[in-house]
UniProtKB/TrEMBL annotation:
Gene3D superfamilies: Rhodopsin 7-helix transmembrane proteins. Residues 42-291 form the G-protein coupled receptors family 1 profile domain. SUPFAM superfamilies: Family A G protein-coupled receptor-like (SSF81321). It comes from the Eukaryota. GO terms for cellular component: plasma membrane. This is Olfactory receptor. The chain crosses the membrane at residues 27-51, 63-82, 102-124, 145-165, 198-217, 238-262, 274-293. The keyword Transmembrane applies. Putative odorant or sperm cell receptor. Belongs to the G-protein coupled receptor 1 family. Keywords: Cell membrane, G-protein coupled receptor, Membrane, Olfaction, Receptor, Sensory transduction, Transducer, Transmembrane, Transmembrane helix. It is a multi-pass membrane protein. InterPro entries: GPCR_Rhodpsn (IPR000276), GPCR_Rhodpsn_7TM (IPR017452), Olfact_rcpt (IPR000725).
């Protein structure tokens, strides 16, 4: 639609890592393909094993199933478009496709922040009130906490995406990123975006910091309780129940904070892309690996599942 000397943008071009040599882009393509497959298989396996094994029907593994489902969604939103942009098969994305990708990246990102806070609360109840754990974290409470964790993603994604894509996009349509994230898309807007930027900053701080504070409060109480345990073995056992979650939280929040809270002057586009990779692509792959390696229940359940699958296969004539 012509308007003066400007043309309305109807599709975007994802620049991805086009500034890198072709050989490195080909290597990245193979790397992301492997990560994509490992993420889907690892998180799907966690969900299936946690559902199949009665020993993993505890509240902690209920929330872990939610996290794995969320990571699969995050992965499906971001990664499938990346191979085409790296090998220049298909670097374009439609206006609606870009808005959809941004919406679900906001949704899954916000939901993950609050779900990690819920998992921290679960660990707090398990360690600080072990005798009442089963009563407090009953099925109804678990379902309510899961809904509360997933819900904040909806208003955040709806308001921010709708508002951003209501601006006029005229002129260049090149998004200097590997997916439609808010900051690089916002640079293409041909209008005054000061009010939106204030909202985006405040919204991002609230979505990241509120769950982060809840996690810190939970682990402060957990640390105080663990320090009161007289035996070293008891302290180690209590800490081991939180170690996987702590590692996942650290990976996610460090990369997310470095991506969105660094001053603009300190951020080159390429460094921001690399930081974005850590929480959008790498962390979803590492989460099932972390829980599988550090939780004996998961390792035992995986072994039981594989043995059962082999037994069934041997029974088939």
């Amino acid at each position: 639609m012509a308007r003066g000397d400007w043309t309305r943008v109807e599709e975007f071009i994802l620049m991805s890592f086009s500034s890198l040599p072709t050989e490195i882009q080909s290597l990245l393509f193979l790397t992301f393909l492997i990560i994509y497959l490992v993420t889907l298989m690892g998180n799907s396996l966690i969900i299936l094993v946690a559902l199949a094994d009665p020993m993993l029907h505890s509240p902690m593994y209920f929330f872990l199933r939610n996290l794995s489902f969320l990571e699969i969604g995050f992965n499906l939103v971001i990664v499938p478009k990346m191979p085409g942009t790296l090998l220049a098969w298909d670097t374009t994305i439609s206006f609606l496709g870009c808005a959809t990708q941004m919406y679900f990246s906001f949704f899954f990102g916000g939901a993950e922040c609050f779900l990690l806070a819920t998992m921290a609360y679960d660990r707090y109840v398990a360690i600080c009130s072990p005798l009442h754990y089963a009563v407090i974290m009953n099925q109804r409470t678990r379902a309510k906490l899961a809904i509360v964790s997933w819900f904040p993603g909806f208003p955040v994604a709806t308001v921010q995406t709708t508002w951003l894509f209501s601006f006029p996009f005229c002129g260049t349509n090149k998004v200097n990123h590997f997916f439609c994230d808010s900051p690089p898309v916002l640079r293409l807007v041909y209008a005054d975006t000061a009010l939106f930027e204030i909202y985006a900053i405040v919204g991002t701080i609230l979505v990241i910091m509120i769950p982060c504070l809840l996690i810190l409060c939970s682990y402060t109480r957990i640390a105080a309780t663990v320090l009161k345990i007289p035996s070293a073995k008891g302290k180690h056992k209590a800490f081991s129940t939180c170690s996987s979650h702590l590692l996942v939280v650290s990976l996610f929040y460090v990369s997310l904070s470095l991506t969105y809270f660094q001053p603009k002057s300190n951020n080159s586009p390429e460094s921001k892309k690399l930081l974005s990779l850590s929480y959008t692509v790498v962390t979803p792959m590492l989460n099932p690996i972390i829980y599988s390696l550090r939780k004996n229940e998961v390792k035992n359940a995986l072994g039981w599942t594989f043995r059962k699958a082999l037994d069934l296969r041997n029974c088939i004539p």
